[in-house]
């Protein structure tokens, strides 16, 4: 199968699978990450556009958070799909490396993403977690997980290990401190860094407004 066909088929597959997802991992998240990845790849003159696009489309195929913490579920599901549609071993291995390492695993865990293609997808995924869309996704996720929005006086918690991060049950506002506000400094590419800056500023302004309203000052 031609590379273009691989991307088209995969887009159709994930669209169908994620159409009715309500936890922030819906098809439109994948669509935005796909578009952002292509945009960053153009700026970075990346070697393999197909790997970037397939990695973006498949990056959340089987998230550990929804598979009892199993980190191998994602790459397994991606490999089985890519084998089914006849992708080459080289493309399959490269995409599985992306799916395996894309996720944020807490402030204290090192990033194991090795390839430029993977770094691009990771930046795109992180950009979609911050800014106006990121705020919306955090509250959508919090709602679907039954989390409290905010508890005044609760100190921000930042996690040292993946275990800590995965087990945490804190408020949605704490998610800004444990993850969203850290992402700006974790961007891999120049394009990603630049785009993260304005999204980050927006979140800071958002939180200031949120606290002022919470306290009845506005
Ligand atoms: P990604 O798709 O970037 O890997 P995740 O799978 O960690 O992100 O989460 C999906 C979305 O839900 C993201 O926007 C993320 O910020 C949000 N999210 C994850 N955990 C929480 C949480 N504890 N509270 C609020 N939002 C969360
Ligand atoms: Ni994602």
Write structural notes for this entry.
It is built from ten helices and no strands. The chain has helices at about 5-20, 25-45, 50-60, 75-85, 90-100, 115-125, 130-145, 160-165, 170-180, 190-215. α2 (about 25-45) packs across α6, α3 packs across α5 and α6 (about 115-125) packs parallel to α10. The structure holds adenosine-5'-diphosphate and nickel (II) ion (NI). Nickel (II) ion binds next to α2.
At a glance:
The chain is built from 10 helices and no strands.
Per DSSP E runs of 2 or more residues, the count of β-strands stands at 0
The percent range for helix content is 55-70%
H/I helix tally: 10
Q: Characterize the largest beta sheet: strand count, sense, and whether it forms a barrel.
A: none
Q: What ligands can be seen in this structure?
A: adenosine-5'-diphosphate, nickel (II) ion
Helix and strand pattern: HHHHHHHHHH
* End-to-end distance: 59 Å
Mean pLDDT: 91
Contiguous uncertain segments of 5+ residues: none
Features:
mainly alpha; 10 helices; globular; binds adenosine-5'-diphosphate; binds nickel (II) ion
How is the topology of this model organized?
Layout: H1 3-18, H2 27-44, H3 49-58, H4 73-84, H5 89-101, H6 116-127, H7 131-144, H8 162-167, H9 172-178, H10 190-214
Helix pairs in contact: 1-2, 1-3, 2-3, 2-6, 3-5, 3-6, 4-5, 5-6, 6-10, 7-9
The site of nickel (II) ion has 5 residues, from α2.
């Amino acid at each position: 199968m031609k590379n273009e066909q691989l991307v088209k088929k995969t887009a159709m597959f994930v669209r169908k699978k994620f159409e009715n997802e309500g936890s922030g991992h819906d098809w439109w998240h994948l669509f935005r990450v796909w578009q952002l990845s292509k945009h960053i790849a153009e700026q970075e003159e990346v070697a393999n556009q197909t790997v970037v696009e397939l990695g973006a489309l498949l990056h959340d195929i089987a998230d550990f958070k929804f598979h009892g913490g199993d980190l191998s579920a994602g790459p397994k599901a991606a490999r089985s799909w890519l084998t089914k549609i006849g992708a080459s071993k080289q493309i399959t291995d490269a995409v599985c490396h992306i799916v395996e390492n894309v996720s944020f695993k807490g402030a204290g865990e090192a990033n194991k993403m090795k390839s430029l293609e993977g770094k691009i997808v990771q930046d795109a995924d992180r950009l979609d977690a911050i800014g106006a869309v990121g705020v919306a996704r955090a509250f959508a996720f919090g709602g679907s997980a039954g989390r409290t929005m905010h508890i005044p006086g609760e100190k921000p918690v930042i996690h040292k290990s993946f275990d800590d991060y995965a087990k945490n049950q804190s408020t949605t506002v704490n998610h800004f401190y444990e993850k969203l506000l850290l992402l700006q400094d974790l961007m891999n590419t120049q394009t990603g860094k630049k785009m993260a800056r304005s999204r980050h500023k927006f979140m800071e302004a958002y939180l200031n407004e949120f606290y002022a309203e919470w306290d009845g000052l506005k």
